[in-house]
Each structure stands twice: as C-alpha cells, then as structure tokens.
Amino acid sequence: MNKAHLMLALPLLAVVPLVSCGEGPATKEGGEETAAGGEYERGPHRGRMLRDDDFALEVTIFEDGVDPEFRVYAYRGGKPVKPGEVQLSMQLVRLGGKIDTFALTPQEDFLRGRGVVSEPHSFDVRVSASEGGRNHRWAYQSYEGRTTIDAAAANAGGVKTEAAGPATVSDLIDMGGRIEITPEGKADVRARLPGLIVSLSGKLGQQVRRGQVLARVESSHSLQVYTVTAPISGTIVEKNVNVGDTTGDRALFVIADPTRLHAEFFVYPRDAERIRVGQPVTLKSLSGEGQFAGEVEAVLPTADVASQTMMAHVHLPPAASREFRPGMGVEGSFAVAQSNAPIAVRTKAIQRFRDFEVVFAKVGNIYEVRMLEIGRRTPEWTEVLGGLAPGEVYVTDGAFLIRADIEKTGASHDH
C-alpha cells in the first residue's frame, strides 16, 4: 500500500443509478456533526478537520510502513492539545451494518487507534470526544469503491450475484493433447475370402449402419458372390478399392464413429506420478469455445522412448462430438487433488482495484468493493482466506461494469 497520511476523503456524489458514492464534510446539527455535500477542511497533517466551537480534531488514517490505523490530533483555539487531555472513541458503520469500534490512546502528539482499519475504507464514521469537561460528537461519511445501481439498470447491464460459500477447489495440472476416436469406435472392413470386387455401394464420407452391405465379392475359390457388410455404424473415412480390384489383405473401407471419442495427453515424467485413473479433467478446445468435463479412463504403462512421456486417455461423452472432432488440439486441466474451501468465489468475478484483487459485494442496490486474501485458484473457483464473509452476496457477472463506474467517478482512496 502507498505511503500516506490518509484522510477520509472524496466529494459526496448524488446517489443515482450508475453513480459512485463519495464522502462529504461534517456539519453541525444539534450539537452533532453529520455528513453534508461539498469539500471539507484539511488540517496540518492533511487529515479531516472536525470542529465544535474552539475545539477541533484532525482525523487521519496512517499507513506508512504499518497496517492502517487512526491517528487523531487535537486542537483548542488553533493550538495543539496534549493527547492525554482528550478521551476519544470512534465507530465505523460498514455497508451491511457491521460496526468497528476503536478506542484511542495518547501517543507522542496524537491519539492512536487500537486496531487495524481494515479494507475497504468505506463507512459512516461516528466520533465521540471529551475534553475540559465538555463532550463533542461528529458523524460523517467516508466511502470508497462504492456505487448505487437500481435493479433495472443492473439487470440491463447483465449483473448477476450469488452468496459466497463453500466449494471444492482442485490442484490442477494443465496439459495439451489431441482428440482421437477410441479403438472401439473404428473398424476396418475386410473381405472374408480373396476374390474379385464386383460391386461397391459404400462411398467415402457416407454414413452407414451396422450390417449394411458395402460391397459384393466373387470368391476366387468357389466363384460364388458374397456380401461384405459394415461391422459398426459410423462414417466411411477411408475407401481403398474400386470395382474390378481384388481384395488381398488390405481393408476395403475404414469406418469411424465420430461420437466415440477420447482425448490423448502426453504426460511428462514430473507429472506422471500424480495422474490417476478416475481423476476429473476439464477439457477445452484451443479456440476456447468448447468445454466438457471428463475423467481419466486409462494411463498407458509404457513411455515414449524419445520424449519419455506416458499416454493418458480421457473419455468424452457422445455430446462432445458437436464441439470436438478427431485430430483437433485440446487443453486439459487435470484435478490431481481436491479439497473443500470454507469460502470461495467464482474466479470470473474477481477484478483488479488499486493494488488488490477484489469482488463487489451487494447490499440492496448498493455495490461495494471487497479486498480479498486469496488461496488456491482454479478456472472456476478461487478460495477466499479473508475479506469476504460467508453468505455475503457478491457480483459474479458484470463486475467489470461496476468497477468501471467506480473508477470513472474517482471513488477511491485519497492517497
């Protein structure tokens, strides 16, 4: 975090759809100061000035080499007051109703808050002070990373939310491979007896069913004509003979079933001990448009002499043939270990805000940044170690729109 005597700053903006909230100065109202529009007075330490007659406080958040903490300077008649002569407490009311309370104790020439002012620095502030037999109270707003969007505008922008909660997070190994037809999905069509091919009904690219007649052959021994049929259903991908040819040992046709697919991956020695039959695998086409879930069906026990890689096969369901074709390249994420994370968020929800990775929490029509402490991460889920409470509702889709709106209105730290 940047070096700063951080004041709780930003102009208060009108709360309308797609406009971020800022903060306003404190103004007196019946002995208690409350937020009002406009800029506020800054003190000698670049903090917010709170005044009540001849007594004043300057509120700063100090974060130069330490976790953010309150440092408050007292003045009477424009001159510094010894911090030991002031009793001071502060409350921060956060979005959602959580309240952080700070007692402040004298240190050097200021009063120091006990505890860390955690991110985000976005709250309604209440200040209570006693000095010289007099009591003082102030209240003001200090918002950052916050915006208000009505429901209709959020729906139109594609904003979707869900509650943060537990999820299964995997340790992944990513590998490249290719799509192939399984051995059971491919068949050579051969003549039973040597002879002369007298007719062919099978054509290259033709879809055929099992048992369908593809050729007639006159036997060289009996001179009788017999039929050659398709052993499986599928598509003729090779045609190796014409009428008038003799059968010989070659296949007349090759039939492939394009719905019986698997992915072949070359597993390097460093990963070989972690790949096991039954592990879940997420398959993605190189274009990124097709994605399917499968599992490891086999790991061949032999290694390639040149590359020292082993072959792993991942089964694909028949529906995958709409996206994946034999010979296509594919990317695979192998889940080699899985564990439950008490709190996780959708990885797609995470955005950059200042120096943090964040999501945006939602309370009513208000959206506010949440700085995350992140653990394990997969393409689908990211473990949250801090910064977001279980059950807290956050934005999963459309978060970039909220971030852009906050950034364009400047509702961020005043460093």
What labels would you give this structure?
mainly beta; Elongation Factor Tu (Ef-tu), domain 3; 415 residues; rod-shaped; 3 helices; 3 domains; 5% helix
| CATH fold-level assignment of the largest domain | Elongation Factor Tu (Ef-tu), domain 3
Query: What is the name of the CATH class of the largest domain?
Result: Mainly Beta
Estimate the strand proportion.
over 45%
Query: Number of DSSP strands?
Result: 34
- Superfamily at the CATH H level of the largest domain? Efflux pump adaptor protein, beta barrel domain
- Give the biggest sheet: 12 strands, mixed
Global mean pLDDT: 87
User: How many independent structural domains?
Assistant: 3
In one word, what is the shape? rod-shaped
So how many helices? 3
Q: What are the segments in which pLDDT stays under 50 over at least 5 consecutive residues?
A: 1-23, 27-38
Q: What class would the helix/strand composition place it in?
A: mainly beta
Helix content: under 10%
CATH level-two architecture of the largest domain: Beta Barrel
Determine Rg (CA atoms, Å). 35 Å
Distance linking N and C termini? 10 Å
Quick take:
The protein is mostly beta strands and 415 residues long. Helix content is 5%, strand content 52%.
